[in-house]
Predict the 3D structure of the following.
Amino acid sequence: MYKRVLLIEDDRDIVELYANVLKDEGFDIDIAYDGTEGLSMAQSGAYDLLLVDLMLPNVTGVDIIRIARNVDLSPHVTAETAIIVLTNMDLTETARQELRQHTQGIYLKVDLTPHRLVDVIRETSGKKA
Amino acid sequence: MSIRTRFLLLSNCILLLIFGGMTIYLTTISTNNLRHQLQTNAKSFAALATTPIGDAYHIYKDSGTQRIHDAMQDYLGLTDIVTNAAVVNVSGKTLFSYDGKQTPRVSESDAATFKTIYKYDRDGKLAQVIQPYFEASGIHQYSVVYRVSNASIDQAIRQQVTSFVLFGVLSLLLTSAVIYILTNRSIIKPIQDLSEQAAVISKGNLEGKIEVKGKDEIASLGQAVNTMAESLKAYITQLREIDKVKSEFMAITSHNLRTPLTIISGYLETSEKLDSIDKLKNALKHIAASVQRLNGFAEDVLTISRFEMGEQGSDRELVPLGDFVRRIVDDATPSAEIKEIKMDLSVGENATVRISKPYIKSAIWNILDNSIKFTANGGSIHVSVTTNNDQAVIKVTDTGIGIKSDELPKLFTKFHRGTSTLTYDYEGTGIGLYTSKIIVENHGGTINVSSQESKGSSFEISLPIADNA
């Protein structure tokens, strides 16, 4: 079961919405409001799960995922660390395929109410086990 | 049939007609001339030769034909048009013939007459001259009959026709060759180049250009094809640009619709399980702000579409700007409070402007919304209304993240974003600032921004102060 979660999301309303419920559900949650901060926190390797938005200031979510999944650039991030993409954008099929290779799932935020997000995290965690 | 073949056939037909006509015409003229000349020659010959021949015959008729023959030979040797001469008596009987074989048939009346008689054959050619011979005493006992040959004329005419035909054939060949080369060089080749180029263009490659030489019709056709390709290229580029803007618009629209909907449905779900009125109030505040965001976006889209279709903001009225801005700031305060942003307003001079209230409201609202979005929790936003000469100035200064200097010029474009949806650096302002810009410009005003990265931004809207008269 994932415990330590990093939410990288610049929309503060969404952060507030998700973070409160995740805390209530017992997750240890850290928040990064922009790409640079999110990437350096992710690279510390302190998290079981990264929840990554794509449209972020400074460094895009796609770049965070690419760098985090590169062993040379991010030695502390293991294959055990799960990544879930949260976006409200329409992705091209090429982008979707690339993201699928590196992540455990791509979800539209509009489909994820906070409790639905909790369900998704639990399902992803269950698959791993 | 190719243009060249048709051209050659046509020109050859015309040349054949010309040469044929010329040959017939010239041959007829020269035949007539030659015949006339021959007749004149034959007549003068007969006139000159008859007396000596007649004398010779008269003197030597009893002593020997050789002397007569010699006398005739002296004359006949001088010409090739008279091939025989004979002496006949007045009854038409041949007394002596130079070549001895042919005896001319001469009627009695022709033989007896005192006049010179000319006989023509069926073709109208002079065949015979009967010239009466008079002795010194004036007695007419004989006539000399000359046989006239047209062989020389026939040969001359044949030669002439042959040279005409030869000349004609040579001219035809030469003309054909010249036409072939000329049409090839000045028509066929340029047309082939043109059609090859047009084929390239029709396959979608609009970069290719036709090399235009000279100033003739083909050159202008080439120029026209080039121009066509140019305008096609411009048109296609424009279409692609429109297509790109359209898909960016779709991407932004879906994002801008989904984000407030995420918050609304998220808070609706959590509100069912909230245990205090304060938490419920907070949820409702978020829901209300999102509804306002959705509404604002819908308004922006409509405004852009109206202005782009050429509609002018109607219902302009005189409005004291300070009071007007105060109401908008009041409306925006709840959104700022969610992020604990301190928002204040100072009105220096409450100038009156002539504006369409709903449009200017959304123009100002978009600026405030943008500042709230990019200002961190606990920051501040200062709004001021002042005047500068004949302009009323609304200034919104925030302590937000600021804008990179290379982003500034793109800020007021329709979608100030990267080319790929995945390389967006910002939670896009989307169309809000663009909407503000077209509204303000529609009111004869200007909108400007200055910014320092990580320190904050300052937006300035200037509107012309209304004449109170």
